[in-house]
Amino acid sequence: MSEPLYHPITIQNLTLDGNIFLAPLAGYTDVPFRTLAKEGGADLTFTEMVSVEGLSREGEKTLALLERSPLEEQYAVQLFLYSTESLSQALDLLLPFSPSMIDINCGCPVPKVTKTGAGSAMMKNPALITEAVRIIKERTGLPVSVKLRIGWDQGSRNYLAFSQAALDGGADMLTLHARTRSQGYAPWAEWETLATLKRYVTDGGYTAPVFGSGDLFEPVDAQRMLAETGIDGVMFARGAIGNPMVFNQAKAILRGEEVVPLSRRELQTLIIRHLDLMIAHYGEEAACKAMRKHSAAYLKGIGHSSSIKQALVQAVRREHYLTALNALVDL
Predict the structure, then answer these.
(1) Do 176 and 149 contact (CB within 8 A), yes or no?
(2) pTM of the full structure
(3) Would you say 171 and 162 are in contact if contact means Cβ atoms under 8 Å apart?
(4) 193 vs 96, 105, 200, 214, CA distance in Å?
(5) Domains along the chain?
(6) pLDDT digits (tens, 9 = 90+) for 245-282
């Protein structure tokens, strides 16, 4: 009998209740958002990208990224690096935060990251990922995962060789965003590469689970990706922005249950809940400004909401949000 699509997952010595994760997202997966994701059913959450160089210098902003949500009994820290020179020092500063797992970003396509040799540019340097994984495992004893892309561009689709380099270093989990760096976030993700990677890892005798990312926008997409590719789990990224309940919704579909969309009143309550978490974390004015991008995502696709969106773009106080969102329930 085959394993159900939703199931517990073991990553080295880390055991999790399920296989529906929140992906690391720069500028989004802060403490307030990860709190909502945990409330929404995420089985594991990841920090935003943390610079090894910034961490080794004990940068205040970098250290702030490591703060843990009260709901995160287990959480993963994602690091990005372009060399291992400062890695040991950074790990010494990271360990007091007690992460459950460390992830290495080899997928970010943003030029300010790749121009240093970090992010998806690491896929040009397989020897670096082998060394980085080995150092982290030896220094921390924690599970290490690697998030990668198909390759730098269509001329260098080296995801299998790069995955092997990560496994050579002792990687305990692989997550493939099924696009090349040059594709960015378009066009469609090539899910067939996820199935290929899973077969490669299994045929090689490795126990490292393979997760997938890319074009997971709706709860049903998790079921499709798991069923079509045979991978071990999924990571929602952009699909969780504006819907941190997507994890429980995906689980419901995997159990054969119907998913009922949030009512306007429930959506209003969720947005205010998010705002209040942001205020508690950042202070009111900073939170209200940072919340604007989230509000736009929550209201995406809702007809006749342009006036609400316009009001929220100018909101600098909680009361402004409450006033604007009062109109939501009447749409």
Answers:
(1) yes
(2) 0.96
(3) no
(4) 37, 19, 10, 11
(5) 9-254 (3.20.20.70), 264-330 (1.10.1200)
(6) 999 999 999 999 999 889 999 999 999 999 999 999 99
Q: Structure tokens of 106?
A: 């080899």
Cα separation, 102 vs 91, in Å, equals: 10
- Please identify which residue in the block is written with the tokens 């360990």: 95
Q: Which two tokens stand for residue 16?
A: 């999790």
pLDDT at 1: 55
- Residues known to be catalytic: 108
Alpha helices in the chain (DSSP H): 31-39, 52-56, 60-64, 87-94, 111-114, 126-140, 159-169, 192-203, 219-229, 246-254, 264-282, 284-299, 306-313, 318-325
DSSP 59-104: -HHHHHTT---TT-SS-EEEEE-S-STTHHHHHHHHGGG--SEEEE
The predicted-structure confidence for 201-229, as pLDDT tens digits, reads as follows: 999 999 999 999 999 999 999 999 999 99
- Nearest in space to 297 (alpha carbons), one of 220, 217, 229: 217
